[in-house]
Design goal:
It comes from Enterovibrio coralii. The protein is of the alpha+beta class. The protein has twelve helices and 13 strands.
């Protein structure tokens, strides 16, 4: 049990270590398989990340073969009667799905065709974290014949649920904060343009001095409220929030940073996605760079990959390479017409 506790703490800095957590739960309880997934808060449908659909593997799907994952995605997900139960009975506390769906119903739904070859026909579910639009859950699979296994699973999940919630929530914050490195801070501070580094929910991660000055002296509509970038103007607040959220749906590549631009009054707001929009379970944890410019002229009318910009200094190229090596921000922005970071002599 102490090993499981220590492994949970380690997930704060490395989300992929949840694979080890799931493996230990299986080992300690005698279960056969376990998953950690992102679920819709209303329907409880599993969200399958794009990478998983392509590779048919994930550290969060422990014990499942590529064929089993492929069959579930393309055939059995729509037959899964357990999902409806999870939507109707949110797993604030762990419970077995057999309490609501018996073997006869599993057979009738056709879902048993997927379960039986794997030697599983029951599952314990628990919510690790719940937000306004999704929840993160753990499902542990076993054979209903092994009643002692079910008891062990429920005991383990009940004991560790508070710690699981704590490390998951704190871990998401730590991973976002670690992405905003000192090197990135140095870069945005070198820009005359006001820029705000935010999460998908417009939570403010960082700003530059130009942004702070903009907030203090120049703008009566943009403000920071409850640690979020927002506006007192209802229309702008809605448009900006939508642009920040939609940026995560754009296709991200190293040489093409997706951006969404909107105009309101005398100002133009550009939201640029700095990372892939999905983490290992499909949650959107990517950072966005929100830049604000006077509508005419437009210092940020042309945004390009820093590696493709002939005007970029050697210092900036080294900065991108360092950040990429740290597996943080793969690309940065170098807007034409904006002052570049000054190298320290």
């Amino acid at each position: 049990m102490e090993l499981l506790r220590n492994k949970l703490y380690e997930t704060v800095s490395d989300i992929s270590l949840w694979e080890d957590v799931l493996g230990l739960i299986i080992e300690l309880s005698g279960a056969k398989k376990a998953i950690l997934t992102l679920r819709d808060v209303h329907s409880s449908d599993l969200y399958i990340p794009k990478d998983v659909r392509l590779s048919l593997e994930s550290p969060m799907l422990v014990g499942f073969s590529e064929k089993e994952i492929d069959d579930y995605i393309h055939v059995y997900q729509e037959k899964d009667p357990w999902t409806k139960v999870e939507a109707e009975h949110h797993p604030y506390f762990p419970y077995a799905l057999s309490n609501f769906v018996d073997r006869e119903e599993l057979v009738k739904s056709g879902f048993m065709e997927w379960l039986e070859p794997q030697g599983i026909d029951d599952c314990v579910v628990i919510a690790v974290c719940t937000s306004v639009d999704h929840w993160v859950g753990i499902n542990v699979f076993f054979s209903a014949k092994d009643s002692h296994v079910k008891r062990k699973i429920i005991d383990i999940l009940s004991t560790f649920q508070p710690l699981m919630t704590e490390v998951w929530t704190f871990g998401q914050k730590v991973r976002i904060a670690n992405t905003s490195t000192k090197k990135l801070k140095h870069y945005i501070e070198g820009l005359d343009t006001p820029v705000f580094l935010v999460s998908k929910d417009a939570e403010l991660i960082d700003t530059n001095r130009a942004a702070n000055e903009f907030l203090r002296l120049k703008c009566k509509t943009i403000r920071v409220q409850q640690s979020k970038l927002c506006s007192v103007d209802t229309q702008l607040r809605r448009k900006l929030r939508d642009a920040i959220h939609r940026a995560g749906n754009q296709e991200f590549t190293d040489l093409s940073l997706p951006k969404i631009t909107l105009s309101h009054g005398h100002w133009r707001y550009t939201v640029t996605l700095l990372q892939k929009g999905e983490d290992v379970i499909g949650a959107d944890t990517a950072l966005r760079l929100v830049s604000i410019n006077w509508s005419n002229p437009s210092p940020l009318s042309n945004v390009t990959s820093i590696k493709k910009n002939d005007h970029v200094e050697k210092t900036e190229r080294e900065l991108v390479s360092a950040l990429a090596a740290d597996d943080n921000v793969v690309q940065l922005l170098c807007p034409f017409g904006a002052n570049r970071p000054k190298a320290k002599r």
